[in-house]
Amino acid sequence: MKILIVCSDFPYPANHGARVDTWGRIKVLHEMGWEIHLIVCGKIAPSQEDLDVVNSYVDEVQICNRRSKLLDLLHVFPMQVKSRDELHKANISADYDYVLLEGDYVYPILKHPNIRNGSVILRVHNDEALYFQSLAKSTRNMIHKFYYYIESKKFEVLQKKILEDIDKYLFISNKEYEKFIRMHPSAKSKFLPPPITQESFKASSFQHKHVVFIGSLFMPNNREAIEWYLKYVHPRLLQERDYKFVVAGNSRGQSLSWLENYNLTNVIVHDTPKSLDDIYSSGYLFVNPMQNGAGVKMKTIEAIQNGLPVVSTSVGCEGTGLVNGRDILVADDAEGFYQHIQQLLDNPMQARKLLDASQNFIRLNYDHKEVLNGFIGSLSTSYQMEQVL
């Protein structure tokens, strides 16, 4: 079987949520014996080293230029989509069994004459209209707020067009999947959890009282989450002996001076670290205090996989299926959030029990290969025959 995967960002290194999901799926498809061709239309060209890693799993890689023009702001489609118009000029043959679009941004590939709409599957990373609405709520910059709001409205238009052209969907968020099937029961859709490498599950030693947040520091919803924590929760924990709040993520070179508005006593910031391993291994628990967002928060899943129990807002764990009180602790008010953290810091055995429960849930419910194999099998009788043979 032969598949074309179309991405809006080079999938390796897998250093943020969307890349983790896409790269894991590429490895799963490779393991399943698929011939994989990859087209990427993003801002940053990969290094030769990163390209070599991807080529060990993918049979062919094609890089397509992304071109942004101010005039695109006037188009009915979002700028994130319009800037990837070059995709319809890519060198594509007509013999793919399936074409997997990694998100709405790469929709222009459907204008290519060799793409059959019936072969297209959309990986839904986010409800992009809701996601851009959440970005508009999170940012204080009025120009950015206006841009995000307009983009959200344009994504609403695009989503209606996508429904006309595509009838196969793989949702990363269980919440968004359930909402979709209620509205569109005839579409071929499935909840496909993010790929998890089950043998790599780790566990904290619970020796250092490091409360960890890892996320892209240039994103306004992550900044909003950190600011909320620093303003309402962090000061309450300063009385805790050995407590530290550890923040890590890619800033894309943007200033982090906004952190200086808060009490940074016992705050450690890692700006664009090369590796997160030491940060996870020295952590006690992970916090996800997001106030606005859409889709699955991969940072929550990755923290659990890397050995940290999680305290989160309801936004920070939506779509994961994790159950409050069993797999994760959830609070949307500062007092409740603080109490959950204090509770775990005071009781390492309870922290370990919560981690064990969340990791067991992921092991049982996040079998990416099985779900993906079953979904494709349900679409294609020839694929079913191939699996039997």
TrEMBL record:
> What is the superkingdom listed in this entry's lineage?
Bacteria
Extract the PANTHER family matched here: GLYCOSYLTRANSFERASE
- The name on file for this protein is Glycosyltransferase
Organism classification: Bacteria, Bacillati, Bacillota, Bacilli, Bacillales
